[in-house]
């Protein structure tokens, strides 16, 4: 007894699409696998340089505020400042 045409078409489609999906999924996984976990962290030298630069800027700002207060120019210091 022959099978109806819709059943044959469905079988052929799934016999073709399923293996194609498996191969495509595996290829996609292999292609994207290399992108995982590649985060560039700053080196210690870069961290130290950035930290020293920030500390120097803060120290310069503190010294400028101290000079402004000792010269009697307290009006130059922004209101609500921490220094």
Topology:
Elements: H1 5-33, H2 44-70
Protein architecture, described:
This protein starts with a helix and ends in a 13-residue tail after the last helix. The chain is an all-alpha fold and 83 residues long. 67% of the residues lie in helices and 0% in strands.
Indicate the low-confidence ranges by residue numbers: none
The total of beta strands comes to 0
Question: Strand-residue fraction?
Answer: under 5%
Distance between the termini: 95 Å
Major sheet summary line = none
**If you average the pLDDT, what whole number results?**
81
Q: What order do the helices and strands follow? A: HH
* Count of alpha/pi helices: 2
**Portion of residues in helices?**
55-70%
Gross morphology is rod-shaped
Secondary-structure content class: mainly alpha
For the CA atoms, what is the radius of gyration? 34 Å
State the gist of this model.
It contains two helices and no strands.
Q: Which terms summarize this structure?
A:
83 residues, mainly alpha, 2 helices
């Amino acid at each position: 007894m022959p099978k109806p045409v819709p059943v044959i078409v469905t079988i052929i489609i799934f016999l073709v699409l399923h293996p194609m999906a498996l191969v495509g999924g595996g290829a996609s996984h292999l292609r994207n696998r290399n992108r995982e976990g590649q985060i560039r962290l700053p080196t210690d030298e870069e961290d130290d340089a950035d930290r020293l630069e920030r500390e120097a800027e803060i120290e310069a700002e503190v010294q400028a505020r101290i000079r402004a207060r000792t010269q009697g120019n307290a009006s130059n210091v922004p209101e609500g400042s921490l220094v």
